[in-house]
User: Fold this.
Amino acid sequence: MFDHKKTDIIVLGAGPVGLTAAHALANRNTDYVLFDLEKHRNTHSYALALHPETLERLDSFGLVERILESSLQLSKVAIYKDGREKASLDYSMLPLQYPFLAVIRQSELEHILIDNLSIKSKKPMWTHRVRLIEDKGDSLNVSVDRLIQGMTGYAVAHIEMQIDKILNYKANYLIGADGYHSTARQSAGIDFPEISPHIEYAIFEFKTDADLPNEMRILIDGDKTHLFWPLPGGHCRWSFQVDSSSTKVNSMHKDRSFMQFGSQHTPILDRKNLDHYLSKHAPWFNGSVENLTWSILLNCEHRLAHHFGKGRIWLAGDSAHLIPRAGTLSMNVGMREACDLVEIISADASEDERTNRLEQYNRHRIAEWQHLLDMDHHISAADQTADWILKHRDSLVGNIPATGETLTLLLAQLHLFDAA
Ligand SMILES: Cc1cc2nc3c(=O)[nH]c(=O)nc-3n(C[C@H](O)[C@H](O)[C@H](O)COP(=O)(O)OP(=O)(O)OC[C@H]3O[C@@H](n4cnc5c(N)ncnc54)[C@H](O)[C@@H]3O)c2cc1C
Assistant:
């Protein structure tokens, strides 16, 4: 049996970007449904910092106090080379309402966003998998599998998701915030090419007795860049860039299990190796490694969609860009993209006007990413720019957690200038 339902906008994916789109739509009283194929939110920290502008956005949803209660606030990013601090970026000097980074686990951010949607009775429809999106010109037809858990197997029974019912939706627009394997992107026939080689990181998260510095650290080591983030509750995250290995590495697949544990068995993630990385790349760290809650060898791809949408299907977040850098750009920019899309799609405008604004959205997004990743070579030096900064500028591009005017001001602190 088919069920026929109508809605104005479908949001596909209840990650941070789709949840942000849902908040923006709820704020405008626009009719929407939000589908996610999973049973619940993800359970890891993944992207763990919110930029100052993202905090302003969350403030407009009435969420900033809750976010600040659950986060660490960092007003400094230090750049280390050969084990010593060589330069730093001071956020506290910026003319912003929230002149700092808020470090919060992505799982906690998603929890807060979902909780707030539940209060508005607009929570995600979990275990709803969008399988087919047809653009009919004047509307979209979207087929959704409602999933339930079922037992399969004979000798060894196991639980897997099965289709309970197929739902048919008619909508005006779809916001594809459905991440790496985006059905939205594929339905619109949009290419998602690699724009530079992937990077591999050995990532560790643990609790420590160290008095953690209240700053993020970018550790430059030859052609590699390692990263340190303090986390709330005395935990910290280390990402050590490693040589591309022949080991099977995790690609961009999110973990939904609530067991926070070392998720792979590869020598690179051994405790002995962690100790080696710490003493080699962070001689200043002398704390304990108490509770290794997460370790993973991650293959981070670097992709940018050819187009940010077509017809009635538009993209925001990881469905359109994967950026293997520490700047947490993909999530923060994705959350802004979601708000921009909502503003365009739900505005009271003629069809032609809306189409023009969506095309403009596409052009601006492509240009913004080319700019953020310095693909247009806009970052220029001055006489005072230190040689080591020029030599390692690739370690800085994409790793500084900032965009737009904030990024321009921070680069200026390093005597790097935005020539665009
Ligand atoms: C393993 C891993 C580690 C990461 N580490 C970092 C990091 O250290 N720093 C950093 O900045 N970023 C990191 N990221 C990236 C960061 O998590 C993303 O930028 C962020 O999640 C983007 O959010 P999103 O909402 O665009 O997509 P996602 O969070 O991927 O959400 C997409 C959602 O869409 C749902 N979905 C997909 N297809 C369908 C369908 N057909 N029907 C219904 N639902 C669907 C998925 O279930 C998912 O919930 C990491 C990502 C991964 C996977």
